[in-house]
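Run log // design_07
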C-alpha cells in the first residue's frame, strides 16, 4: 500500500527540513512525499532542493492559499491513502505511517485519525496542548467535536468521489471536508488512540478574535452548504470543547 503525504509550504525555511526528515525517517517505506510550495523567497526552495531525492514531486508556483496548495497535492497523489503534514508539523515517532498502513489493511476503513500535541516552536518537548480526539460518533459533531486535521488520513478514492477542499470556506475548509466526509456521507472512520502528530503553536483561525469570529461564520457555512443542521449550541461548543486540551497537556 502506497501512502501519499502532502506538505504545503510558503517561506517555511525555519522548519521545512524537519518536516521532510520526519517523513523520510519513517520505518514504512512505501511513501510518496509531495511538496507544494507557494513561491517561497526565504531559502525554503534551497532546502527542498537538498532533499529532492526524498520527494516524489515538487511544485513551486503561486497559489490561492494553503487549501489550494493541498488540492494541488491531492491531484498529484497516486497513493491509496493520502495524509497531509504541514511544514511546521512533524510525526510523533518513526512508526506513525506504519500504524496508518496497518489501520487501512481493513478494507472497510475509509479514513482514520489520532491525537495531536501542540508544542513550542523551538523546544518541541514542551507541550502546551494535548488534543485527545476520542472515538468517533456522528452526534459528537453536534457538540462541537472535530478530529485534528493533521492526523486525518483518507483513502484517495474518497477525494475522487466527494471532492477536495472547498476554497470558499477559508480557514474552515478542513472542518468542512471532515464534516462532509464523515457526517454527510458516513465514511467509516477509525480512531488510533495515540499522538500521531506534533504541531508547533500558532494558526490562522486562532490568531485573533477577528479571525476566530470569521472562522465561526465559516463553520456555520460548512453545515449549510452540506444540507446539515447544527444544534443551537454547536458553534458555541466548538471553541469551548478545546479548553480541555489545555487541562490535558503533558510534559
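design_07 sequence
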Amino acid at each position: 500500500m502506497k501512502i501519499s503525504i502532502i506538505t504545503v509550504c510558503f517561506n517555511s525555511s525555519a522548519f521545512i527540513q524537519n518536516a521532510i526528515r520526519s517523513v523520510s525517517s519513517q520505518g514504512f517505506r512505501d511513501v510518496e512525499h509531495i511538496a507544494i510550495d507557494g513561491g517561497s523567497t526565504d531559502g525554503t526552495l534551497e532546502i527542498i532542493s537538498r532533499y529532492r531525492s526524498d520527494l516524489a514531486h515538487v511544485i513551486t508556483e503561486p497559489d490561492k492559499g494553503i487549501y489550494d496548495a493541498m488540492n494541488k497535492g491531492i491531484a498529484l497523489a497516486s497513493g491509496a491513502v493520502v495524509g497531509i503534514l504541514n511544514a511546521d508539523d512533524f510525526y510523533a515517532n518513526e512508526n506513525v505511517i506504519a500504524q496508518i498502513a496497518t489501520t487501512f489493511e481493513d478494507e472497510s476503513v475509509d479514513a482514520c485519525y489520532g491525537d495531536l500535541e501542540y508544542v513550542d516552536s523551538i523546544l518541541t518537548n514542551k507541550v502546551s496542548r494535548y488534543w485527545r480526539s476520542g472515538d468517533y460518533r456522528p452526534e459528537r459533531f453536534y457538540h462541537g467535536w472535530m478530529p485534528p486535521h493533521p492526523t486525518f488520513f483518507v483513502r484517495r478514492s474518497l477525494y475522487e468521489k466527494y471532492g477536495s477542499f472547498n476554497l470558499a470556506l477559508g480557514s474552515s475548509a478542513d472542518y468542512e471536508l471532515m464534516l462532509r466526509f464523515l457526517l454527510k456521507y458516513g465514511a467509516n472512520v477509525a480512531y488510533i488512540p495515540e499522538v500521531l502528530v506534533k504541531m508547533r503553536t500558532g494558526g490562522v483561525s486562532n490568531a485573533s478574535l477577528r479571525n476566530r469570529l470569521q472562522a465561526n461564520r465559516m463553520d456555520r457555512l460548512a453545515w449549510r452548504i452540506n444540507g446539515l443542521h447544527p444544534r443551537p449550541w454547536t458553534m458555541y461548543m466548538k471553541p469551548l470543547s478545546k479548553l480541555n486540551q489545555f487541562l490535558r497537556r503533558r510534559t
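The first strand starts at residue 3 and ends at 9.
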